[in-house]
Amino acid sequence: MPDLLIADKWRDYALLDCGDGMKRERWGDFVLVRPDPQIIWPRRSGTPWEKYDAIYSRSSEGGGRWEFRTALPDEWTIAYGDLTFRIRPTNFKHTGLFPEQAVNWDWFSRLIRECDRPVNVLNLFGYTGAATVAAARAGASVCHIDAAKGMVDWCRANAELSGLADAPIRYIVDDCLKFVRREIRRGRRYDAIIMDPPSYGRGKSGEMWKLENDLWPFLKECRQLLSDNPLFFLINAYTAYLSPTVLSNLLREALLDIEVPGTLSSGEVGLPIQSDGKILPCGIYARWERADD
Predict the structure, then answer these.
(1) Which pLDDT score is estimated for 208?
(2) C-alpha span between 155 and 176 (Å, rounded)
(3) Which of 66, 81, 247, 279 is deepest in the core (most CB within 10 A)?
(4) Which own/partner pairs from 36-40 qualify as long-range (CB within 8 Å, at least 24 positions apart)?
(5) Are domains 3-81 and 96-290 of this chain identical in fold?
(6) Helix, strand or coil, per DSSP, at residue 105
(7) CB atoms near residue 184 (< 10 Å)
(8) How far is residue 87's CA from residue 285's CA, in Å, rounded to a whole number?
(9) Radius of gyration of the chain (CA)
(10) How many CB atoms lie under 10 A from the CB of residue 90?
(11) Which value, to the nearest 10 degrees, does the dihedral of the CA atoms of residues 165, 167, 168, 174 take?
């Protein structure tokens, strides 16, 4: 059965309260309020939140904007263990970090540290690189891929903030599918793959990506990049149209011919809500990891 993994080890981040489509979060010293489509339950207090520094409001025409009560810095940092990340409110309501993913950082960091050999990790759709930085901190060599140069630059900044400026990280600005196909032709192999594909996307030449249609063929190509002695494979997704079991089934089929023993798991990742103890679901995952010899 799918599991629910809760990212409850944070000190610099907290999900303070949720309700009526909004969430109130503490990011270091600052409190932000943002919309979240999963929050369809009412605010328990029934009264508006008063204590926050900025709120992201949707507009009737689409999109939205931040409204600041406090003069916030352009960016600041928060830490998770020995990792440090740059936080910045963006025009698309995001801050550059998905704190629920800490449960996955902890998982694959343990696998990397306990492995008695070098580990080469491919991080596809790598965004601002929290997973890249976590894997590099654990001792892996990492290839970080994202189509947006700004996100790749943000990843490099996070690595520098975490004391990993000289870590073996390759920073690549490219379309993930095109990169994977080139790597196949080059004969490169990776011991672990992390991917966080979007629900929808459009390439520079107008190519359309739709998760339900394109994830399976993409997984089949990624399978060709796995080494003969793979350590793990992680898929994250944020679409409401797929279940964890669907991701698990896809990953199982993609890795059907792997000759090393392994275990497969899937579920949701979530964050604890401080005010009332509920859990906010934040995405789904499927994982494969090599079984202990």
Answers:
(1) 72
(2) 16
(3) 247
(4) 36/280, 37/240, 38/280, 38/281, 38/282, 39/280
(5) no
(6) helix
(7) 15
(8) 24
(9) 19
(10) 11
(11) -40
**In the chain, what is the greatest distance between 2 CA atoms, to the nearest angstrom?**
59
Q: What is the pLDDT of residue 146?
A: 96
Write down the domain spans for the chain: 3-81, 96-290
Let me know: does 254 contact 285? Beta carbons within 8 Å: no
> Which residue shows structure tokens 């490169």?
188
Instruction: Kindly report the CATH class assigned to 3-81.
Output: mainly beta
CA distance linking residue 131 with residue 136, whole number of Å: 8
Residues 40-74 as b/e (b if ≥16 CB within 10 A, e otherwise) read: eeebeeeeeeeebbbbbeeeeeeebebeeeeebee
**Topology annotation, domain 96-290:** Rossmann fold (3.40.50)
Q: How many CB atoms neighbour CB 248 within 10 A?
A: 21
Write down the residue that tokens 């004391």 correspond to: 163
- Cβ burial, residue 247 (10 Å; 0-12/13-18/19+): buried
Beta-carbon contacts of residue 254 (< 8 Å; ≥ 6 apart): 216, 219, 220, 222, 223, 233
Using a cut of 0.85, tell me whether the model's pTM lies above it.
yes
Single-letter code of the amino acid located at 157: A
- For residue 130, the number of C-alpha atoms closer than 13 Å in the C-beta half-sphere is 22
Predicted pLDDT at 221: 97
Rounded mean pLDDT for each run of 10 residues along the chain, 293 residues in total:
90 97 97 95 86 89 87 97 97 95 98 96 97 98 97 98 98 96 98 91 69 92 97 90 92 94 96 96 96 75
pLDDT of residue 238: 87
